[in-house]
């Protein structure tokens, strides 16, 4: 065999091997997608059948169970899902998702992965578990740090920190502004941890990038602004020690109600302002109409005498 023929044979072998690898990767991706679809339907069906707060029609549960059984049979025989079986699985998921809300396929998977004693069986599940545990750990440390710094700032304002305040008056001013900021952040952290644990228990927790950080920033803002508005230009201490401590924390914890009330006030003011020009135009038109009627009443006899 000549060198040229040998080179062509090697090149053809490489191409064939590459095509085979690409085909295998496509088949593996399709198999993984089918397995995930079946696992999602199984979790959704289990939740819809066992959760007390979910009322799914028996007809819907029976159809979903039949679709799940057919899909499991196909996966058991190591064959990809055909179009009919895959369509049945997707239709069953689409029908059950509105019934189980606020739970979702993602939240049910997270709840399953985070169960005590759960054994990992895939890279995806291990990654989910790592991310959830890391998120909770970060916010726990943030809560403890905010509590510690708030206690230090409060201590600098009490009699125990009088010597430090007397030697460095700026410490007292900084502490006055730091206390509501830290307590607002502490309230937001407590809310994030509480909703995370409640979501895991209720199987409604989902991972959202940046949502918790945004809430903590809003908690800092309202923790500082609400006491400032109530103080009416005076120092925070004028509100009393208990209110100075509790109010920023509650404001940071209840971000949604505060901004909801603010939105309601703004909408009310907007509606009142938008109605005023209408009333003004109506009042301005009314004298004009009466003058026209008066002019008509006067001119009519004149026209008749003419």
Shape: elongated
Number of strands: 0
Structural class by secondary-structure content: mainly alpha
Report the radius of gyration as a whole number of Å. Answer: 34 Å
How many helical stretches? 10
Helix content: over 70%
Largest sheet: none
Distance between the termini: 128 Å
Task: Give the SSE string.
Answer: HHHHHHHHHH
Average pLDDT, to the nearest integer? 77
Beta fraction: under 5%
Low-pLDDT windows of residues: 14-27, 289-306
Integer count of domains? 2
Structure overview:
The chain is mainly alpha-helical and 306 residues long. It folds into 2 domains: 96 residues; 131 residues, no CATH class. 83% of the residues lie in helices and 0% in strands. Helix 5 packs antiparallel against helix 7 and helix 8 packs antiparallel against helix 9. The longest helix is centred in the last third of the chain and has 51 residues. The chain starts with a helix and ends with a helix. The C terminus is likely disordered.
């Amino acid at each position: 065999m000549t060198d040229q023929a040998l080179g062509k044979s090697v090149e053809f072998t490489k191409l064939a091997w590459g095509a085979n690898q690409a085909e295998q990767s496509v088949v593996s991706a399709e198999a993984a997608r089918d397995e995930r679809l079946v696992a999602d339907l199984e979790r959704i069906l289990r939740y819809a059948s066992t959760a007390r707060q979910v009322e799914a029609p028996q007809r819907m549960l029976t159809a979903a169970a039949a679709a799940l059984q057919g899909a499991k049979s196909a996966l058991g025989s190591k064959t990809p899902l055909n179009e009919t079986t895959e369509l049945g699985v997707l239709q069953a998921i689409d029908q059950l998702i509105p019934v189980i809300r606020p739970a979702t396929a993602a939240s049910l998977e997270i709840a399953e992965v985070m169960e005590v004693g759960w054994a990992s069986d895939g890279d995806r599940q291990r990654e989910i578990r790592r991310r959830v545990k890391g998120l909770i750990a970060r916010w726990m440390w943030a809560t403890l740090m905010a509590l510690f710094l708030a206690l230090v700032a409060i201590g600098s304002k009490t009699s125990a920190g009088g010597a430090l305040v007397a030697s460095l008056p700026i410490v007292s001013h900084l502490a006055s502004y730091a206390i509501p900021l830290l307590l607002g952040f502490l309230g937001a952290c407590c809310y994030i941890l509480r909703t995370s644990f409640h979501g895991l228990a209720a199987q409604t927790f989902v991972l959202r990038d940046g949502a918790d950080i945004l809430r903590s920033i809003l908690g800092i803002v309202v923790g500082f602004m609400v006491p400032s508005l109530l103080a009416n230009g005076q120092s925070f201490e004028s509100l009393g020690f208990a209110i100075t401590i509790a109010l920023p924390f509650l404001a940071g914890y209840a971000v949604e109600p505060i901004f909801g009330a603010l939105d309601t006030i703004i909408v009310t003011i907007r509606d009142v302002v938008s109605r005023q020009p209408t009333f003004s135009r109506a009042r301005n038109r009314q004298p004009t109409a009466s003058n026209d009627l008066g002019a008509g009443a006067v001119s009519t006899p004149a026209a008749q005498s003419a």
